[in-house]
Design brief:
mainly alpha; two-stranded antiparallel sheet; 65% helix; disordered N terminus
Length: 275
């Protein structure tokens, strides 16, 4: 009788083994990244530009920043700071040795690229938001909106492709398995971070309209690429990365506890706002 070989982890190729990625840890990192992206946009971006132009920040919440001297520099400051932060996280991702830190930096880079690109397209289509305000007084209005929409879509597609190229070291080189691995690293933080942002936005003093138009639109809408970008890994649109095994994101209690503390502080303070 012919013996059927017993396959174990020792004799299975690394590229076919399941990635030991912990969902709770991925969600925790996602929550921290979304909060960091929010603070970069509202606090460092709009708030920093307000101070640089001689104004005084009056109120900073999870969905808005009020400045005593509103001007185009302040309005553009949020998106500009997101792009600067994305560049910083790009280099951090390349230097990081820890899988958790590398994933954090990659996700932070991605969020900070998608957010300003999404704002451009959103402002063009809906005539609402930072870049719609930036263009107040520009004529003809329709040309400004069309230009914003096209620029936003082009920038968004570029951000998605660039992000997926940088994700390859974390998802391996197996053509089929890398899609599964990518889904694990994109969908979970999308929902975890988006929910926390919307909960914080619900406490803002300006009312529910900003929850829908700012919190939900900028998170679930602006970063929606995290839901569908793994599909781009099918075929040859995104070439295979180095022939290495995917890097697992294992259970990390420090990240989980840190995310819980940061989320509670974010909702408690920036939800209702800091004057």
């Amino acid at each position: 009788m012919q013996k059927i070989p017993l396959y174990t982890e020792q004799n299975v190729q690394p590229s076919t083994l399941p990635v030991e990625t912990d969902t709770l840890t991925v969600a925790a990192i996602g929550i921290v990244v979304y909060i960091v992206g929010n603070i970069v946009h509202e606090g460092l971006g709009h708030g920093g530009a307000c101070l640089l132009t001689g104004g005084k920040p009056l109120l900073v919440t999870a969905v808005s920043m009020e400045c005593s001297a509103e001007n185009r520099v302040v309005i553009a400051g949020g998106s500009v700071m997101n792009v600067i932060a994305a560049a910083v996280f790009f280099f951090l991702a390349r230097l990081a040795k820890s899988p958790h830190l590398k994933y954090f930096a990659w996700l932070a880079m991605t969020i900070n690229l998608l957010t300003p690109a999404g704002y451009l397209a959103f402002s063009g289509v809906g005539d609402f938001g930072d870049w719609a305000m930036f263009g107040q007084g520009f004529s003809p209005r329709w040309a400004w909106r069309v230009g914003l929409t096209i620029a936003g879509i082009v920038a968004y597609m570029f951000a998605v492709r660039f992000s997926l190229l940088q994700l390859r070291p974390l998802i391996g080189s197996d053509p089929a398995q890398r899609i599964v691995n990518a889904i694990r690293l994109t969908k979970t933080p999308y929902f975890a971070g988006g929910i926390v942002e919307c909960v914080a936005g619900a406490f803002n003093p300006q009312g529910w309209i900003l929850v829908a138009l700012s919190a939900a639109a900028s998170t679930f809408g602006g970063t929606s690429a995290l839901l569908w970008c793994p599909n781009w890994l099918r075929g040859s649109r995104i070439p295979l990365g180095p022939d290495t095994a995917p890097v697992p994101i294992e259970r990390s209690w420090p990240w989980i506890v840190a995310a819980l503390i940061i989320a509670v502080a974010f909702i408690s303070f920036l939800g209702p706002g800091v004057r």
